[in-house]
Amino acid sequence: MIQTIYHIEGLIMVTNTAKVVIVGSGVAGSLVASTLINAGVQSIVMLEAGPKIPMQDPRMWFDFITTGANPYGNVYDTPQDYDSAGNNPWAIVGGRLFGRGGSTLHWGGWTPRFMPEDFALETNTGLGIDWPYTYENLEPYYCKAEAYIGVAGVPQTGQRDWRSQPYPMAGPVLPFTAKPIVDALQGLGYSFGNMPVARNAVAYNGQTQCLTTGTCHYCPIGARFTGDQPLDALETNPNIQVIYNAAATTVLMSSKTLAAGVEYLDTTTGEINQISASVIFLCAGAFEIPKLLQLSTSLYWPAGIGNDNDLVGRYLVANPYLYCRGGAATNPLLYQQELNFPNLASRQWDTPDEQAHGKFLMNMSYDAPIINPGSLMYTGQTIDEINQMVTGPFQYELQGAISPLPSYNNRVSAASGTTRFGLPRTSFFTPDPIVPQDTINLNVQRMTQLYEKMGWTVSGGGAYPQRGDHAASTCRMATSDSEGVVDPQMRVFGTDNLFVASNAVLPTIGAANVTLTLVAAVMKALDEILAQKPQWV
Amino acid sequence: MTTLDKDPLGTRTGPSFGITLIPYLIHHINPLQDENAPPLPSPDQTGTLQPTDVDTLYQITLYPQKKWSIDSQQNDLDPTVFTNFINFKTQEEPSYYTAYSQTLMLYNALVNQFGSADQAMDYLYTPNPQTPPQNWDVVRNWAIKEFLLLFIISGNFRAYGWMNFPGWMGGGPFNDPNHLPYRGINYGH
In this predicted complex, what is the ipTM? Predict the structure, then answer.
């Protein structure tokens, strides 16, 4: 990479030149980087706004199991980082993090596929838009994405998210705690199965076999895919440079169609730097990318890049998340969650019939019930008192995600001020509900019905405050710029060399977690881009 | 009819749907986080404890077997793992070297006072003494509490009838249905 240094207004401006600049080091960014490296690209610079975060660190893990602290606990949004207004104002703290590997550092590794109808929302309901392709078109890439991430799953007979290849690894047997819910589901004639998960049933992709340690949010052995793992290999390659604490502030354009580079703030030095590039991939999530495009104004794009039709940042969605708690007065079977990662799920209501008002993917929380005798000992509980608690009242939580309904009015944009990561604060304006209250009530009632079938007492249910997990569609992919921001190859309409690889491009989302679908969609786009043999490769 | 509410327990800030709930997770693994707890003393003071001191801390960590009548056969915490735990905690920042040194000092003082190691350890594991000795809060918060959690994680949870527990490394892989490291759905049949 060529490097020149000169002074502008007292700041040292460093100009690098790279073939490709990637903004964001999360699962999409590292996938783009590794694909392009394998395709022969010889100069890639990746900008990551956050710091390096130590993973698989023994000391960190000891701290995690004895204090609950983990090394990414301080790289979340804070309440000061955003403004929020509208219907059920968004409260995003805890939903994403800034650092090497991105938000998959903390993900649960849930990897269900979307259902076929999720690709045709407009056709089926008149809402939103259809994807520019179908489940059938994406299915081969789902298989590749599952292999890339390392998914363990249990095939279901007759599942509508049909598959052409087996899961890369066999999924776990459901735990004993699932039995009462399974019995209730069966008793009511409802379907159920195992949630596919990113867990290494065997040693896989250079990572260790899962030892069912149950501290998945900080796995001591890397047996759950996290976005930093691909970077471990990439950063040994001399053709890629990752710059941390680098907040991209502007995409620079040399003409209406040609992106010339990226300007970024080095938050460790305060320097403003520029990197020129032949092609740019924005992989920084559904909040940061629209803000970056909106703020990248120029004579060519006075309203921001790709925003001539005022669509950048619109159609903001995420999965509303429901819960329902229930339990009984005694626990003679010693129900206690022992398989502490996602397992039992039901897609009974994740169907076309539900699509117009919001589909529902239900699961059993793996967080409850859990009693920690160590903490009871610390507070002075006797052996008899602890045993009474172990066999006494207990509480489960059923949960589930709703497929959101898109609205033009719901939008993310930049607010005044910057965060500690040098990024613009975020404004959420969501005047329209992304799911009707009736849908929430209906699905809480469905979970209630299961508890009633078990003969347990329900203690409450509802919707959690809307967070930003699975936020999507803010630069949605469409077949024309009148409907979206990027084309089916994820290229920003009106540009030649600016791409968005992020949840931001998903035209709509289903009730299923989005990461697997994102990886599949990015793989498909990259396949098509590289098939055209671009000059920058 | 179900009552709809936001969070009747008031313990959670959001769902566990593919993400970490930091406040809840802390509560979940260690519900004893106390804002009024004393700070870790001298966290930048790293050091290596003598093997005899590590062994004393090991004996303190295993004392709950006696106090709570837990079968010693359940314990998987061997001296090597414990020594690694102590070394990571004392040799890297934030260092527990001073906290553990204070624990050893208090323990030795209690042994002298009571004339019995068991009585000294029992005292350490009994909350709220009428006249707390010096550094009682530091020792309880930074040593005893974490030793208890480590003790339970290290196989001793099995005393309560469970097969697995968050943090236990001994369960093994989940890919053999005939040797599950947790109670499977057909457990007992």
Answer: 0.92
